[in-house]
Structures are given as structure tokens and as C-alpha cells.
Amino acid sequence: MSPDDLEHVPATPGAGEHLPTAFTTIEQELTVFVRRARGFSAQMSREFHPDLEPGAYAMLLWLDDVGSARMTEMASYFGIGKPTVSRQLQLMEKLDLIAREVDEKDRRAQRLTLTENGAALVHRARGARRESFRVKFGDWPAEDVDRLAELLTRLNESLSKPNSQ
């Protein structure tokens, strides 16, 4: 049985039996979604530049959203170590995707920004990705697409909260 065959296998009775059906479905569908999202990110990253890792592509998108940031802010946002971020940034800088500038608030620190080339490539990639979504959701009613956007926003907000004990 391939991983694709397992995507929608009904939950088997066992330890999770006490969970409401909706939570079982959420768990299953999020697992599939994450796997597909990783594949999608890897594909987009390769199309963006063959040497970029999927994580670097996400960093470029985030940097486009925030305008500029310190490396420590980026590491914190993505929940990864500074050495990992630093390695990715070195490659992105070598590829003329990002630039480092002196932070005006703290001249000892550096801020990261997209270069003109980096911004143009990110905007082109984002346009292609949004067009892909438009096609994939082409047979969905607009209200459903709007509702999905709203629910994904709420999901990410909920998942960003620490677990309460």
C-alpha cells in the first residue's frame, strides 16, 4: 500500500476511539494537507531556484510580507536555529535574492531585505502560485473559498497558541 492509498483510510478502532469523529477527520486531513504542502513548497522552491530549499522559499515570502527583519526575528518566526537561518541567508545573498543592511535602530545589527531581483522573483512566483490556487478552486463557490481563507487564518492563529495545561 502506498502513502497515497493511506490518505483517506478510516480511523481504526483503538486508542483514539474516544475522540469525536470531527477531530479524527481533522487529524487525518491535516496530515494529508501537511504532506501535500511540503511537496508543493518543495516544487515551488525548485521552480523559484533549483538550489533553494523549501524553507528558504518560505523565508523569502515572509521577508516580502514584513519588508525587512533581523535574522533573529526570522529564526524566531520560523522556530528554527540561527545557524540554519544563517546558512540559508548566505545562499540567498549569493543568489542576489536578499541584501543585508545596517539596522538604523541598532547599528551593530543587520536587517535583511529582498533585493530588486529577489522581490521581482518572489512576486512572479506568488502570482503563479495564486493562479494555481485559482485554477484548483475554480469549481468552488466564491463563498466557500472566502470561508476556507477565514478558517485557515483561524486555524493558524489557534495553532500558534501554546497548549494550555
SSE topology:
Layout: H1 21-48, H2 54-66, E1 68-69, H3 71-78, H4 82-94, E2 98-103, E3 106-114, H5 116-136, H6 142-160
Antiparallel strand pairs: 1-3, 2-3
Question: Mean pLDDT score, rounded?
Answer: 86
Rounded Rg: 19 Å
Please tally the β strands and state the result: 3
- Overall body shape: globular
Strand order of the largest sheet: 1-3-2
Describe the sheet with the most strands. Answer: 3 strands, antiparallel
At a glance:
By secondary structure, this protein is mainly alpha-helical. It has six helices and three strands.
Explain this structure.
The chain is mainly α. The chain is about 60% helix and about 10% strand. It has helices at about 20-50, 55-65, 70-80, 80-95, 115-135, 140-160; strands at about 70, 100-105, 105-115. A hairpin with a 2-residue loop joins strand 2 and strand 3 (about 105-115). The chain is globular.
List keywords for this structure.
three-stranded antiparallel sheet, 165 residues, mainly alpha, globular
